[in-house]
Amino acid sequence: MLVSSNHEIQGSRVVREIGRISAATGWGGVACASSEELRAQALRRLIAKAQDYEADAIVDVDYSVDGIKSCDLSACDLKRVIVSGVAVRLARG
Protein backbone atom coordinates (compact mmCIF):
# COMPACT_ATOMS: atom_id res chain seq x y z
CA MET A 1 0.00 0.00 0.00
CA LEU A 2 1.41 3.37 -1.03
CA VAL A 3 0.97 6.19 1.50
CA SER A 4 1.52 9.95 1.06
CA SER A 5 1.00 13.00 3.25
CA ASN A 6 0.14 15.10 0.18
CA HIS A 7 -2.31 14.48 -2.67
CA GLU A 8 0.23 12.81 -4.99
CA ILE A 9 1.93 9.45 -5.24
CA GLN A 10 5.33 9.86 -6.89
CA GLY A 11 5.46 7.99 -10.19
CA SER A 12 1.71 7.26 -10.21
CA ARG A 13 -1.47 9.03 -11.18
CA VAL A 14 -4.62 9.06 -9.05
CA VAL A 15 -7.59 8.10 -11.24
CA ARG A 16 -10.34 7.82 -8.65
CA GLU A 17 -10.91 8.90 -5.06
CA ILE A 18 -12.74 6.20 -3.15
CA GLY A 19 -13.30 8.39 -0.09
CA ARG A 20 -11.94 9.67 3.21
CA ILE A 21 -11.16 6.97 5.75
CA SER A 22 -9.87 7.11 9.31
CA ALA A 23 -8.59 4.79 12.01
CA ALA A 24 -7.46 5.15 15.61
CA THR A 25 -5.49 3.30 18.23
CA GLY A 26 -7.19 2.20 21.40
CA TRP A 27 -7.08 4.45 24.43
CA GLY A 28 -3.96 4.01 26.54
CA GLY A 29 -2.08 5.65 29.35
CA VAL A 30 0.06 8.60 28.31
CA ALA A 31 3.23 6.69 29.19
CA CYS A 32 2.08 3.32 27.73
CA ALA A 33 3.70 3.61 24.28
CA SER A 34 5.79 6.05 22.31
CA SER A 35 4.14 8.38 19.82
CA GLU A 36 6.01 6.59 17.00
CA GLU A 37 4.58 3.22 18.06
CA LEU A 38 1.07 4.65 18.27
CA ARG A 39 1.38 6.33 14.86
CA ALA A 40 2.57 3.06 13.32
CA GLN A 41 -0.31 1.14 14.92
CA ALA A 42 -2.86 3.67 13.66
CA LEU A 43 -1.36 3.60 10.16
CA ARG A 44 -1.55 -0.21 10.05
CA ARG A 45 -5.25 0.03 10.90
CA LEU A 46 -5.78 2.69 8.21
CA ILE A 47 -4.03 0.54 5.60
CA ALA A 48 -6.24 -2.43 6.51
CA LYS A 49 -9.33 -0.25 5.98
CA ALA A 50 -8.02 0.96 2.61
CA GLN A 51 -7.42 -2.64 1.55
CA ASP A 52 -11.03 -3.47 2.43
CA TYR A 53 -12.06 -0.81 -0.12
CA GLU A 54 -9.58 -2.23 -2.67
CA ALA A 55 -7.59 1.02 -2.71
CA ASP A 56 -4.13 1.16 -4.26
CA ALA A 57 -2.93 4.05 -2.09
CA ILE A 58 -3.83 6.52 0.64
CA VAL A 59 -3.14 10.24 0.09
CA ASP A 60 -3.50 13.34 2.28
CA VAL A 61 -2.56 11.31 5.37
CA ASP A 62 -2.82 13.32 8.58
CA TYR A 63 -2.32 12.40 12.25
CA SER A 64 -3.88 13.87 15.37
CA VAL A 65 -3.80 12.99 19.06
CA ASP A 66 -6.91 12.79 21.22
CA GLY A 67 -6.49 13.02 24.96
CA ILE A 68 -8.49 12.79 28.15
CA LYS A 69 -7.21 14.47 31.31
CA SER A 70 -8.38 12.93 34.55
CA CYS A 71 -9.72 15.12 37.34
CA ASP A 72 -8.93 12.38 39.82
CA LEU A 73 -5.31 12.57 41.00
CA SER A 74 -5.07 8.77 41.28
CA ALA A 75 -6.22 8.15 37.70
CA CYS A 76 -3.96 8.42 34.67
CA ASP A 77 -4.42 10.57 31.59
CA LEU A 78 -5.35 8.74 28.38
CA LYS A 79 -4.47 9.32 24.74
CA ARG A 80 -4.97 7.80 21.32
CA VAL A 81 -3.67 8.56 17.84
CA ILE A 82 -6.11 9.14 14.99
CA VAL A 83 -5.01 8.98 11.36
CA SER A 84 -7.07 9.86 8.31
CA GLY A 85 -6.53 10.02 4.58
CA VAL A 86 -8.18 9.58 1.21
CA ALA A 87 -8.27 6.06 -0.25
CA VAL A 88 -7.57 6.17 -4.00
CA ARG A 89 -7.20 4.00 -7.08
CA LEU A 90 -4.13 4.53 -9.26
CA ALA A 91 -3.73 4.32 -13.03
CA ARG A 92 -2.58 0.91 -14.22
CA GLY A 93 0.35 0.39 -16.54
Explain what you see.
The chain has one domain (2-90): Hypothetical protein apc22750. Chain B (Translation Initiation Factor IF3, 2-Layer Sandwich), CATH 3.30.110.70. Helix content is 19%, strand content 43%. It contains 1 helix and 5 strands. The protein has one helix at 35-52, and strands at 2-3, 14-24, 28-29, 57-68, 78-90.
What separation lies between the terminal Cα atoms? 17 Å
In total, how many beta strands? 5
- Strand-and-helix sequence, N→C? EEEHEE
**Under the CATH scheme, which architecture would be assigned?**
2-Layer Sandwich
Number of alpha- plus pi-helical segments: 1
Biggest sheet, in brief? Answer: 5 strands, mixed
CATH hierarchy, class = Alpha Beta
What is the overall pLDDT average?
Answer: 90
Can you tell me the CATH superfamily? Hypothetical protein apc22750. Chain B
The low-confidence runs, each spanning 5 or more residues with pLDDT under 50, are: none
Number of domains: 1
Structural topology:
Layout: E1 2-3, E2 14-24, E3 28-29, H1 35-52, E4 57-68, E5 78-90
Parallel strand pairs: 1-4
Antiparallel strand pairs: 2-5, 3-5, 4-5
Quickly list its features:
93 residues; alpha+beta; Translation Initiation Factor IF3; 19% helix; 43% strand
Summarize the structure.
This protein has a single domain (2-90), classed as Hypothetical protein apc22750. Chain B (Translation Initiation Factor IF3), CATH 3.30.110. The chain is 19% helix and 43% strand.
